[in-house]
Design goal:
The protein has 437 residues and is mainly alpha-helical. It has 15 helices and no strands. It has a single domain (37-435), classed as Up-down Bundle (Growth Hormone, Chain: A). Helix 5 runs antiparallel to helix 6 (200-210) and helix 10 (268-277) crosses helix 14 (370-399).
């Protein structure tokens, strides 16, 4: 592809990590526009293909890390910490990441973060193959991958409108979501096969290899110059403006509260899934994650239909109830066939909730503030998932997985009460939100 300058459009969305990954927002393209229209644009098409490959590698990495920990220890707390550690970076650099993405050249920032994750994945892969990995080292490298992902996310989510023309913007977001969820469906199953055949170390190295398509795209991309100041004062000023926006924005407060009450209890199922899947081997674990991804893909496909018929509050409440049922059922019925159905249901609910929260977070903020709004949303959501993973792992250590998942399901149900005090906004209630600059 011959790189071309990106059209100047509004800001938008894209990438993630672990079962708590933040998918691109599934948005229906405007009537009369083809959902495949963005693939006719060379810039978008090249990045889309590279991103799907990278997403697939990330899911292989997730399966490998979760499964490797179960081979090192069967402690529910340590297994839960695999997910928790990957998200701890959100607390440390989540807010600065959004501010940095709004004041530096995003292309250069993304090249740095992608390279960082390549080095971390290679290091973990080499140590695993050499048989030198301990639970502590696995958590350390998971944390390093988490740092890269957190620094990457706000900038990555903000470049979508720079690589697709304005009239294909909504369709481009829909295609990003489809690509993410296709990878979520095939990546875990492929990872399970790779682990069974060659071990987790090879899965980690394949993940490192998967980043190179995106890195090549970013290297070739002739992005229009933007703000490129990384002075400490500028970053702190940008963070202060983000906090001021949060303090004065009731819709953003609602998004963050709803994200927090959901994520803390929702962290139980992904955290304990490696232990639930252990009797079925790495292939079984990968397939269960694959069923979750397939459910997410199905949910993303039907999201536009549900959003036309239900308010954001009603959709999130119904999906939360469905996810609570799946969490409870996973602790009670643990045959492979039943767990497969449960994970399919959980995937459908998961994408409805996260996409609705993500849409509200992004459309409630002006364009120049969007990366900072994303970083605050990611801080609360991934931080809640991390805290929840550690919490429910500790509870499972004391009372068993079944009761831990039951308590988490109750927590999800109780958290639905927040709907009465914290209402979500949506694209429909703010029709000009995507055009704000």
């Amino acid at each position: 592809m011959s790189p071309v300058a990106a059209p100047e459009t509004v800001e938008g969305s894209d990438l993630m990590s672990e079962l708590g990954a933040i998918p691109p927002i599934p948005v229906a393209p405007p009537r009369g526009r083809s959902v495949l229209g963005p693939l006719q644009e060379p810039l978008f098409r090249t990045l889309w293909i590279a991103a799907v490959v990278s997403y697939t590698g990330t899911w292989m990495q997730n399966v490998g890390a979760g499964w490797l920990m179960t081979s090192l220890t069967m402690s529910p707390l340590m297994v839960g910490l695999v997910q928790a550690t990957g998200s701890i970076a959100v607390f440390l650099v989540g807010l600065p990441a959004g501010a940095i993405a709004d004041v530096v050249d995003r292309r250069k920032l993304l090249l740095f973060t992608q390279t960082w994750m390549v080095v971390a994945a290679v290091g973990l892969g080499v140590l695993t193959i050499a048989g030198k990995v301990t639970p502590s080292l696995l958590l350390l490298f998971t944390l390093l991958m988490g740092f890269g992902a957190v620094l990457n996310d706000p900038a990555w989510q903000a470049i979508t409108p720079e690589i697709v023309s304005h009239h294909n913007f909504a369709a481009g977001i829909a295609l990003n979501s489809a690509g993410f969820n296709v990878a979520r469906a095939i990546g875990p199953a492929l990872g399970g096969l790779v682990i069974a055949a060659a071990g987790s170390g090879i899965a980690f190295l394949l993940n490192a290899l998967s980043f190179f398509g995106v890195i090549y795209f970013l290297y070739q991309w002739k992005r229009k110059p933007g703000r490129t100041s990384l002075r400490l004062g500028h970053m702190f000023l940008a963070m202060f403006e983000g906090f001021r926006h949060l303090r004065t924005s009731s819709p953003m407060k609602s998004v963050l509260v709803r994200s927090a009450v959901f994520s803390i209890s929702a962290g139980a199922l992904p955290a304990l899934l490696p232990l639930l899947a252990h009797p079925f081997g790495s292939q079984g674990y990968g397939l269960l994650l694959g069923f979750f991804g397939l459910g997410a893909l199905m949910g993303a496909t039907g999201l536009a239909y549900f959003r036309r018929r239900l308010s954001a509050d009603a959709l999130v409440s119904l999906a939360t109830a469905l996810f609570a049922f799946a969490t409870f059922a996973a602790g009670r019925w643990q045959t492979f066939a039943v767990l497969s159905v449960i994970m399919l249901i959980a995937g459908v609910a998961w994408i409805q909730i996260l996409a609705s929260l993500n849409v509200s977070a992004q459309t409630m903020s002006p364009g120049h503030m969007r990366a900072r709004a994303i970083s605050m949303y990611l801080l609360v959501l991934q931080g809640g998932l991390a805290g929840g993973a550690a919490l429910w792992g500790e509870i499972a250590e004391r009372v068993g997985m079944g009761r831990s998942l039951s308590y988490a399901a109750i927590g999800l149900a109780v958290g639905m009460l927040a709907t009465f005090w914290f209402r979500l906004g949506s694209v429909e209630t703010h029709p000009n939100a995507l055009a704000m600059n």
